[in-house]
Amino acid sequence: MPLTISSEATADKNKLRSDVIWIDLIEFLYPDEDPVRICSDNQAVTWKGHEWQPMIFIPPEIEESKNAQIPDAKLVFHDITQEITSIIDQYDGAIGAEVNLYTVLSSMLDSAIPEREESMELLSAQIDHQSVVTLSLGAENLQNRKCTPSRYLKNHCRFIFKGNKCGYMGSETDCDLSFSRCRELGNQSRYGGFPAVGSLGYRI
Length: 204
Fold this sequence. Notes:
The structure is a single chain. Helices cover 10% and strands 29% of the residues. By secondary structure, the chain is mostly beta strands. The strands form 2 sheets. A 9-stranded mixed sheet has the order 3-4-2-1-7-8-9-6-5. A hairpin with a 4-residue loop joins β8 and β9 (132-138). The chain starts with 6 loop residues before the first helix and ends with a strand.
């Protein structure tokens, strides 16, 4: 799908000369830590109520594919001040961090809608002897994840006891989620298991 940008961005892009700056913003989100937000401008910018600090980096080139390839991109920092390096060392590479990429116009920082938006995952980090940090970004390959939307079990109810789907409104306070217990409670018509399947259940 081709990139769609606003009419203001289109008009600026088609000018022979413009004072508007296209600013790349990068946001690193790591569990239980404060976000790290940086920008490609030479001074801090404020966007969506957050301040984005200036830093030298080469934005990743993200290519779209028609054959369902997992996106992969490189984000390169010239980390002369060791700021990024210290963060990477502190969090053992920060592998798994969510990385959000945005592109905005300097003339439209009051708009919460970016011209481009990508969300990727930090897959690996490399640092060379010249303080160049290369981060590999990509998306999770869902083929590597065990994903079973439903599992049909013979002797185990999938509903929460006294929940909306269970529907039991009696005075009993416990249930082992078995069909026999459901029958004792007179609630077998709402049983969330599947007595007709095999003992090991069936996955779809």
